[in-house]
Design goal:
7 helices; binds NADP nicotinamide-adenine-dinucleotide phosphate; 240 residues; Dihydrodipicolinate Reductase, domain 2; single chain; alpha/beta; globular; 2 domains
Length: 240
């Protein structure tokens, strides 16, 4: 008789946020992961919630052992969680957007020591959209390429990390994308990539209506990353 492997121990960084709350709720529904620490910037109102110990960011160095951290916080909270993963030899899954160039370089350096995945968007639909954008850009030389992204009023960075990632796909195909950002209401996330020339245009659109898609993708990645060789992984590496 074989027993199931031990659940992957997860630290959630940014636990009180919109994404953090979705991660906590969806992790509780899975058998293959267990949340051993939930970390937020401010002091938590309750020390233990539904069996999960909660910590303030200032208490991060004393967090219990974990296999992988999932980080959906803000750029100012990113450096300490990356450093902790390196110190502990733990994996990192991060979706925090608006990182500074030095923070991106720090990710590359950390990948010499730990397995990690940073993605601007954890949805399968956006991964496919990126492929379509690159193909369209390559097939339509000389067409104008514009990316319009819309998000809720609380989102701090603009253009969104996803818009920039789609722009990189367009550039791979030979286009020179321009960006526009809208902040309105409670929009979870919409990305329109438009190719236009005289007399015609093509619009490729992705609409996220529920942030659970991002949380599911991050949990899936987190369940598969620990134990892998150090390096930077892509979402699609962990899907197969
Ligand atoms: N890659 C993707 O698929 C994807 C999808 C959605 C969102 N995102 C990104 O994920 C991030 C979080 O989004 P959200 O909507 O959940 O934001 P949010 O609701 O504002 O939550 C931010 C969280 O980060 C914590 N935090 C802020 N500063 C911190 C610090 N210095 N140290 C530690 N924790 C800190 C906050 O704690 P307090 O509550 O104590 O302030 C809160 O728990 C953003 O960068 C967003 O763009 C990425």
């Amino acid at each position: 008789m074989t027993s199931d492997p031990a659940p992957v121990r997860i630290l959630i960084h940014g636990a009180s946020g919109r994404m953090g709350q979705a991660l906590l709720r969806l992790a509780a529904e899975r058998d293959d992961v267990v949340v051993v620490a939930a970390v937020q910037r401010s002091q938590p109102a309750q020390r233990v919630v539904d069996g999960v110990p909660h910590f303030a960011a200032s208490e991060l160095p004393g967090a219990p052992e974990f296999d992988v951290a999932i980080d959906f916080s803000l750029p100012e909270g990113f450096d300490p969680v990356l450093a902790l993963c390196e110190q502990r030899g733990a994996a990192l899954v991060s979706g925090t957007t608006g990182l500074e160039p030095e923070q991106r370089e720090a990710l590359d350096a950390a990948a010499q020591k730990i397995p990690l995945l940073w993605a601007a968007n954890f949805s399968l639909g956006v991964a496919i959209l990126g492929e379509l954008v690159e193909r369209a850009a390559a097939a339509l030389p000389g067409w104008d390429c514009d990316i319009v992204e819309s998000h809720h009023v609380h989102k701090k960075d603009a253009p969104s990390g996803t818009a920039l990632a789609l722009g990189a796909c367009a550039e791979h195909g030979g286009a020179s994308p321009r960006y526009a950002s809208l902040r309105a209401g409670d929009i979870v996330g919409e990305h329109l990539v438009q190719f236009a020339t005289q007399g015609e245009r093509i619009e490729l659109v992705h609409r996220a209506t529920n942030r659970d898609i991002f949380a599911r993708g991050a949990l899936h990645a987190a369940s598969r990353l620990p134990g892998r060789a150090p390096g930077r992984y892509r979402l699609r590496d962990l899907l197969s």
